[in-house]
Here is the input.
Amino acid sequence: MSTAQQSRGGPSGRGNVDGYNVDGAGSREPGAGSREPGAGSREPGAGSREPGAGSRGDPWGTAPVRRRVLGVVRNLTALDRLADVLTVLADDFRVETRFTHAAGSEFDADLSGHFRRAGMHVVPWAEASGRNFDLAISPSGNGALHELDVPVLTLSHGAGHHKHLPSGQGFGSEVAGLAHEQLVRNGRVVPSVVCLSHRDQFELLARECPLAKDRAEVVGDPCFDRLRISTPSRESYRDSLGTGDRELVLLASTWGPRALFGRAPELAGELVDALPGRNHQVALVLHPNVWDRHGPWQIRQWTDRARDSGLVLVPPEHGWKAALVAADTVVSDHGSLGMYAAALGKRLLLAEFGRREVVAGTPREELGRRAAYLDRGLPLREQLERAAPVEGYAELVSAAFARPGGAADALRRVIYEQLGITEPSWRAVARPVDPFVPE
Here is the structure.
């Protein structure tokens, strides 16, 4: 870790939770959040709009850029979460975002294609240094983040830090995203900030990686806030999907052998057969890792008959949030989408639940205890008609997500503190998710 990273990231007492402090952390000591003397501005005049001075030392730039953010992407799941996070930087001409591929994931087969289709400016890992960037944001603690000569902000790429750390040998006991092996390299904490979705995760972090507990900031969940704010426009999302007055049943699977699609890959076809198309629409969302490992052609091949019968296959790069907002009933497993569905008050049935992958004592584990389960040995239609929201789902929201509706504000505050510039004058708010129109 570089000297610059230590001075900017240091024990900044993160841990601001809903306006109160964890271990006295929310307000920084004088100068604790600032850079070393002279470090806040780049070369002389870099922050002004004088000719040639606005583009962070780029003689060819046009916009008055003063800070540059690096989006660190290991796989499509991380890229999806960055889309939720980076909305807080929208409309600020002072901040420019570029992206880099952090190699090493087992699920990064087509990242270059996704970058290209999104129109993102991508830089090689070798150029992702403090000379070119002011802050790196990574929705994963994995990868060679210690090689970045720049402050690093990490956060969960799902609905909180509720799952164990996976490996080629299965799932270990460590908490994914908070494990010592992810956050510490050569005895030093790599991230300047570890963002958490709820204050209870501070206790998990303190247990998993005590060295990093002073780097925690509880900011809430920007994805959940986007889903919530989109709910009043649910009918427009249903119109885009072509749902109309029909009942939309969303089948959602995480990845791995204990996932719904791993245990019951034929369930989508069974639902399409069991539910009359004039009254029902069935959509299938698979975790991006499923698409990456098996390939889009194979996924389409496996769902060919079901799609001919009306199944909507939601692509991995977009659409799942809109489909969830539009859904009436969700059939899922221990993945994040099931958690979000429960928190939104959707009627929910769990078809599988990989308990060994879920951290004990977390809201995700509680969901596995409270939710009703689909019995594939009984008529599917009758079970779906009896489906209901998870009992006490509002308690799950309180247990899983800090500051519902305030994640954008909290996250932007943390990011701009790391960048060393003032926040924009406008309020940071969650943005509605994009609609999805099936092919």
